[in-house]
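Changelog note: in this version the structure field was regenerated for every chain. One regenerated record is shown below for reference.
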Amino acid sequence: MMLENKSNLEHNVDGESINIREEAEKYLMYWKWFVIVATISVSVAYIYLRYTTPQYSASGSIMIKDNNKSGISSELAAFEDLGIIGGGSSNNPDNEIEILKSRKIIGNVVDSLDLTISYYTQGRIKTSEVYQELPIQLTFIEKSLFGTQKDTTFTLDRLNDTRFQLKSMDDELILKAEFNQIINSELGLFQIQSLSSYDPESTSNEVIISLRDRDKVIDAYRNRIGISSVDKNSSVLRLTLQDPITTKAEDVLNELVKQYNLDAINDKNIVSEKTKDFIEDRLLSVGLDLSEIQDNVKNYKTKFGITGLSAEGELALEAVSNNNKKIVEIQSQLSLADWIQKKLTKESEQNDVLPTNLGFTDVTITSSIQAYNELVLDKNKLLVTAGSRNPQLIEVQKRITTLNKNLLSSLANLRKSLEIQLNQLNIEARKVSNKISDIPFIERGMIDIERQREIYSELYSYLLKKKEETAISLAVTVPNAKIIDYAYSNGIPVSPKKNIVYLAALMIGLIIPFLIIYVKNLLDTKIHSRKDIEELTTIPFLGDVPHSETDEKIVIGKDSRTSTAEAFRLIRTNLDFMLPNHDSGLGKTIFVTSTTSGEGKSFISINLAAALSLSNKKVLLMGVDLRAPKVTEYLGIPERKGITNYITNESLTAEDIKFSIPEIKGLDIISSGVIPPNPAELLLGDRIKQLFEQVKKEYDFIIVDTAPVNLVTDTFLVSKYADMTIYVSRANYLDKRMLNVAQNLYNEKKLQNMAIVLNDTDMTRGYGYGYGYGYGYTDVVKKPWYKKIF
């Protein structure tokens, strides 16, 4: 009875067969929807690409110097003999990345390039930012608090070469002014310069000026600038930035490196600046004292007419000078030790760098001061990127505190040592003074003054030397980062990527209908095809009737060649295999029923009767659905006497209730008649039996339109008069679970010789096996294009 299509089958892991062609046809039948949605999706992608501002990527690379990874030597090695170059701490590239992205550095970039102000021109399609060839330029002389904390956008219209007007984005006039005029507003004091000549036909006559909050601009660039190490063992960093304007992205990255280097140089010069300031203060004080002593020497020589010292006096002065030189050195170191002790004690909480290169004879203290300064600089760097609870910052602070205490202890020991040396030198000075006492009085006074001059002259020379050394250290300070590649953009947009956008749009256009159809099929519980019926029941399948594209109730005629008419011809042929053969000469009674109402029983009954009448057979159509008569209503004729009247009025004969219609020749019809209050009881009477016995003798086929079996029992009461029962199920209407009703009736044989007809099938779905109507049909109803699509 049923042929199982074995082609295109594969087996899944559970052993169940999957018909690949059938699964594909579930989606291919909606190919128009795939085309429509994909076309719409690609069109949206085209519009998106047309109106979206492309983003370009600029990139550059730098190498962090003086770090363990780079392995390069310091450029300052030539000055190590001056004692101005400390050991230095290596820079950690990971820390330098955080410094590069710090608000401080990026803030300097924003200020340097004036990135809080943007200029835009309105084109025919979109608004574009102008960066290099600016038609006008706004310069702030003084910003107000309001002007720096609120985003503001307004339009500048050039009236001529000298005047302009400002309008809000709502096209309200704000003010009119002249170029280069200082304007006082709530934004602050500013002026606008004209950088191009006025052209009435140019689009640059109207410029949109956008003022953004500085903090927001900094945050935006922090998120957009990408900095990464090219390798975990490398100190080379790659900097990237995406922006609609390539030159702007390049300028920002180059300025970022510049500001980073300036900040690093400033950090390195902090110690030298501190030392320089200390030395200059000392030079000023010693210089005043030296000037005063030199005046004393001149006055003393003038007073006593002395031009020089005797040989004995020269020897005495030389001895005094040598001794005093040592005393000055000791006293200088004591003074420095006192000063640094006070500074360390005062700044035990708030750490600051200490002057270095001051000439301590104790190498340990000099190295400790350098180490202390390095830790303070590391701490200052960490403060930029880390919070107060950062473990690394806490560890550095502990080391600073420990080194502070060690330095104080070392300085205390140094003081004791220096005081012992100073006492010894004072003893030597007294011995020299005793020798000087033997020299004449006037010459002895001259020696005392020369001795003081020698002391301050030596000290002044010493300080000048240290000042020059410090100046050299300031002059030779090198940047932290070596530029390997300046920022460069190849001018190819990185976002949006046309190929990816179009591909994504196409995929979305295909996936959306696929998912909708998949979910629809997943949630669908309706029967659709012959395959559904054959999988769920064992009832013989008589045929299926495609959906009729016309509004005609009678779809089959002598010359009708539509797919629906051919379906009824096929059912008519299949009836020969289903109806029993008997030679009694009586007509064959075919009951037409369904599970529920609305499945097309009347449509099938009328057109099946019409199909049988076309084969030159005597056919009678009876409406036995007494509760909801549909035959006359379906044919569009007024209600008349029928079976109900025949049963209740014994004076009526079958001829009295018969009628025919001109549309179907050779077909007689008996309608249901008036709706009775007790249809079940009427169908139990003898009159209905008499009617069936009579019409079987007069007609070849009796088509009986009965009531739905799942709603009432009327059909079961008269089923014994049937030679065959056609069970109508409507596609896309009846729930698959309701087929159990038909299967139970078939198993229990409550209806005679059952067979199923599937009504209102979709031609595009076919039989569920890949078949379909359409061969040789000439009466194809042509639909409008929109109906063909939807």
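Spot check on this record: The chain is about 50% helix and 20% strand. Residues 86 and 370 are 6 Å apart (CA to CA).
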